[in-house]
Amino acid sequence: MPPQPWPTGDVEQIEPLIARVLAANASPFTYTGTQTYLVGTTDLAVIDPGPDDAQHIEALTRAIAGRSVAAIMCTHTHRDHSPAARGLAEATGAPIIGCAPLHIHSDAPRADAPFDQDYAPDRVLDDGEAMTGTGWTLRALATPGHTSNHLCFALEESDALFTGDHVMGWSTSVVMPPDGDMGDYLASLALLYTREDRIYYPAHGPAVEKPRQLVRGMVGHRRARERQIMRLLAEEPRSIAAMVPIMYKGVDEGLWPAAGQSVLAHLQQLERSGTVVCSEDIWAIN
Fold it and tell me: Which candidate, 35, 32, 33, places its Cα nearest to that of 46?
C-alpha cells in the first residue's frame, strides 16, 4: 500500500481527456480502492462507477460538475465496480452501458467482491462496439477470464486502455471458478499483448506505463504456477487442499481457501487439455 493520505473523493486530472476519482473501499483485494474514470471535457463517459456508496456517488457528482453524461460504463459486475451505476444514473439521467449482466451463485470462498445481482444495463456493448462523445471514442474489447463478462475500453484519441480488473498495476487478477476461467484469461492477455496501447488505467492501483512488459510478466507468472502444479502432481496425486500450503507457503492462511479456487482454475484448464484428471477430489497427471 502507498503511504496515506490517499486522494479518496478528489478529482485527479491525469490527462486532458481523463480524470480519476478514488472510492473509499480500500481492502487487501482492492488496494487503495476502486478508481472511477471520467472521460471527456464537455460530455462525459464514467467508467467503473464503483461501489454503492453515497459519498462516492456525491464525489462523482461533484466531479461531473453539471456536465452531461453520455454513458455510465462498467467493465464487469463485481460489487466494487458496478453498483454505483444505479445511483449515478438517477442523479444524471445517463444510460448504463457496457458489460452484460451476470448472475453467478456459488458458495465457494472468494478473494474478490461477489457479483452485483441488480446490474441492469440499458445497452450491452459487443466486442468492437464503440461509444462516442465530443472529442472521445471508447471502444469495447472483450477480455473474459477474470469474469466471463469482462470488457476493457480503449480510448482511441490517446491510445489508453481502461483495463478494469483484467490487468492491474499492483497485483495479478483473481481468476476463480465457477465464472473465472484460466484459459479465457490467458487468451485475453495474449490479445492485449498484440495491441500497442500506450498506457493502461486499471480500476485498482497505479497506471501501467509499460503495458506489454507487464502482460508478458503476468503470463509468465501463470505459467510458473502451472509448472508448480505439474511438479507436485508428478510426485504423487494430490488434492487441492494438499497443494495450497505448499504453493502458498508464507501467505496468510486465511487466504488459502481463495487460493485454492485459483489452483482449481489452473487445474480445470489442464483437465480440458487432457493433461490432468480428477477422481474424488484427487488430481493426477493423465
Answer: 35
